[in-house]
Amino acid sequence: MLLLACTYMSTFAWADDAYLSEEKDILVATHSSVWKPYSYLSDNGQPKGLLVDFWQAYAQYNHEPVQFVLLDWADTLAYMKEGGNRVHAGLLKSAERETYLDFVAPIFNIDGSLYIRNDARGTKTDTLVGGKTVGVVAGSYESNYLSKHYPDVAQQTYANNERLFDAAFSGEVDALVADSQVANFYMLTFDKPLTFVAEQILYTRPIYAAVPKGNQALLDQVRDGMNNIPAEELLRIKQKWVNTERVEAYPAWLIPSIVLVMLLGAVTYIFILKRMVYKRTVSLRRANARLREFANTDPLTQLLNRRGLETYFTRLKPKLSRQQEVGLILIDLDHFKQVNDTYGHMQGDKVLVHLASYLKRCVKKGAAARLGGEEFCILCPTQDLDALIEIANHIRCDIAETVFEFGGADIRVTVSIGAIVSSDVVEEMKQLELDALIHAADLLMYRAKDRGRNQVMLASSQSVNTPIAEI
């Protein structure tokens, strides 16, 4: 057990003489000496904090010694500018810092908030305006943020967070910008949790590890080493240090008032609950109806899609009389790729939408659908093939004569059509399947394309491509 303990402790370097005497370079992690709870020096001079624990975990899981150098914040940045085998334990990105640092990977998120004195909360309408003074740590991201976004606000700078909060609690400043977790920690540490309140969160950003600019080998080494730290270990470290509890001061009458409100609420609870259940039930039914509609509708043209056509077909079959058949007209735009290539897909989509609108008006009994791409379909009850041919050829002629005008462009298209009735596929209506009907019409449509396009092809191998007036 003693041997195992010694092996575990040897993963960390605390400016230990044994490690300093080794020939290999020790990775030095630098950070603030008073940035609680992220990093600080304890009363006996030992590094403590969330980021210290993080880099200790890095040392443990990579079997690599880490030495800590904790300084005032501005000094940590100057220390990194000197280069060497060192890493900044965690800081926010900024354009100025990226000139001398390479950022490795995010570690934890942090909030930057504006805090104002509690007794001034009702009197200050806008703290971040010209003529106001706000306390910040010198060289910090908060200082850079204020300079960039609120250049008219005067900044009172301090060497570190401890001096900033000393000044705030002593009345030297009435407003400050600091990391939310750091501010909460210092206010609890000084036992003054209600002296300042967060007026607004200015930003939420990740803090990154960073190495001196241009040291690619160290950048890769630190990145790989951070990936070796298990996620559960990161969560444990965060839960250990980040205090998420809110500290509130309650007046004596508040709890009895809450109890009274709860009693009054209990009287009306059942009524409110039933009302909510009713409203949610109605909303759920409407949502389900909309979902069914979406599931059966093509989003571009608002025609039925393949699923919707199948549903319509299932409902149509039992309603047909003995003298009626099911007719299917399969429509495919000729050379539609050329339209997209010439005018763009947006104009092509407008042609499809216009064609869909025409098919809706054309179909009196039955349903129009878009099966995909530029392929459309009409499914309808019909007396015989002649009636279906008349509808199909009307569609072919109307489309060929239509000029689509979009954005100053005149677009003309033609269609190839396969038209078929149920008796061409099966003898008994009850045996008819939509897939078989579509497949047969699809073969006819491709036959129409093979014979020159812009025509209607029937199961009898007859081609219809004459104007309506001649039929």
Automatic annotation (TrEMBL):
Residues 324-461 form the GGDEF domain. Keywords: Membrane, Transmembrane, Transmembrane helix. PANTHER family: DIGUANYLATE CYCLASE DGCM-RELATED (PTHR45138:SF9), REGULATORY COMPONENTS OF SENSORY TRANSDUCTION SYSTEM (PTHR45138). Pfam families: GGDEF (PF00990), SBP_bac_3 (PF00497). InterPro entries: Diguanylate_Cyclase, GGDEF_dom, Nucleotide_cyclase, Rev_trsase/Diguanyl_cyclase, Solute-binding_3/MltF_N. The chain crosses the membrane at residues 253-273. It catalyses: 2 GTP = 3',3'-c-di-GMP + 2 diphosphate. It is an enzyme of class 2 (transferase). The keyword Oxidoreductase does not apply. This is diguanylate cyclase. Its EC number is 2.7.7.65. PROSITE patterns: GGDEF (PS50887). The keyword Oxidoreductase does not apply. It comes from Salinivibrio sharmensis. SUPFAM superfamilies: Nucleotide cyclase (SSF55073), Periplasmic binding protein-like II (SSF53850).
